[in-house]
Amino acid sequence: MTDAASVGAGPANIDGYIADSLYPSVYHYLFAPEWTDTVLLRAGKRPPRGLPGADCGTTMLDLGCGDGLGLIASAYADPSSRFIGIDAMPGHVERGRQAAIELGLANVELRCATFGQALEFEPVEAHYVAAQGVLSWVSPQACADLIALIARNLGPGGAATVGYNTMPGWTSRLSFQKIVHTLSRTVAGSPQERFAGGFARTRELPALGAHGVSEHVFEWMDELSLDVPAGYLPHEYLNANWQPLWSLDVIETFADNGLTYTCPAMPQLLRDAFVLKRAQRETLATYDDAATRELVKDHFINEQFRMDVYTGGEASEVARSEAAEALMHSTWLLRRPEEQVEFAIDGRVGKVRFDNLAARAVVERLSRGPASLAEIGEAHDDCTRADLLLAIDALAYDGQVVPVRPRDDSIDCAAFNRWVVAGGVARMGAVMTPFGPVSVGPAVLPSALDDAASRRRLGL
């Protein structure tokens, strides 16, 4: 496997974006079609590939795909579909193409191009489009090109999931980013070394009376650094065009390009009651305009990162009963051992507990392998459909469960997982299962493949 050490990252920057360090390989399950389908159904909208049970190939386009290993994992599990990634960094594309060759994939294509250059490509009529993070990391022109690309390539009935840093949640760190970015330019070395040096010099300033860089920001950064790959922080903080965006501006700009804000994709927002007080929900209900409503909501919950689904025009409606039935027949997987499951949410409205019969039934069954809520309901006739749907939403809040593809025993999981471990890309944090790729985190990946209980839970 070709890794970052053996692939040149390219020029120092591309239109202000740092390009002398490769972005860490990662599988973002919240951008996978299975999650997009779930949030659309929760919003009463029809997913791009129809309701569960539909067997048809789809096209997925990932804009700013990095090395595309997450896209490649999805392609490995779904040979009847087409996967296309576009990224401006040659090192990313080279690493991803090599991975696709090693895995023998013919249904994934990685293209090296800026968003502006990609506008010259033939449109692909994608069912799913993903753009993770880049909107708030690139120049205004690149943002405009990205949005135009989504509008140009999103097929009829398609859905685009877009993630970006947002205000007002970044307010307390605006000064921090500006100073770290500036002081990192006084340090020589790799992006990681420049960030570390800039961070250390910034940390000296509060004791000297500097404003805008309080100690709680450094404490937050210390905790964050333990949870993210080493190469991530320079990409977050050292881009010349780094700028958190207001959701109102993003939603209205997308609308100007024929793209309609449809629903949030963050699992914490599956139910407003998880994050909003009753009076806040009542106030939001008085706003007819989605852009206004979302801006006010961001202020209620001090949002710092948004992940939203957009459609070309108004998405097709699905009757509430039909959507609930479809959700009941979706397949779910438990991402952590049963004994580590927490039956409580540290929500933004306080602690929400859901240690009840339905939640226990879901966890107990999923500890033995992926299953649908319908299957669980058949074994527990004392749990209503509403009980089970509430339980799965609560468990999904912090990623304890995820929706997955229906079982497909033709997937050679062992070969993919051997490639991940042997090739040194365990940092991607995903394993292949008969239900498709599953994000388990790089720290637990080896044990997930070796432990009998974990293998059973993952359906291996």
Please report the number of helical segments.
19
Low-confidence residue ranges: 1-9
Annotated CATH topology of the largest domain:
Rossmann fold
Strand order of the largest sheet: 5-4-3-6-7-9-8
Explain what this protein looks like in three dimensions:
The structure is a single chain. The chain is α/β, with parallel strands linked by helices. It has four domains: 4-168 and 244-312, Vaccinia Virus protein VP39 (Rossmann fold, 3-Layer(aba) Sandwich), CATH 3.40.50; 173-237, no CATH class; 320-404, no CATH class; 413-457, no CATH class. It is built from 19 helices and 16 strands. The strands form five sheets. A seven-stranded mixed beta sheet has the order 5-4-3-6-7-9-8, sandwiched between helices. A hairpin with a 2-residue loop joins strand 11 (344-347) and strand 12 (350-353). The chain is globular, with a radius of gyration of 22 Å. The two termini are 24 Å apart.
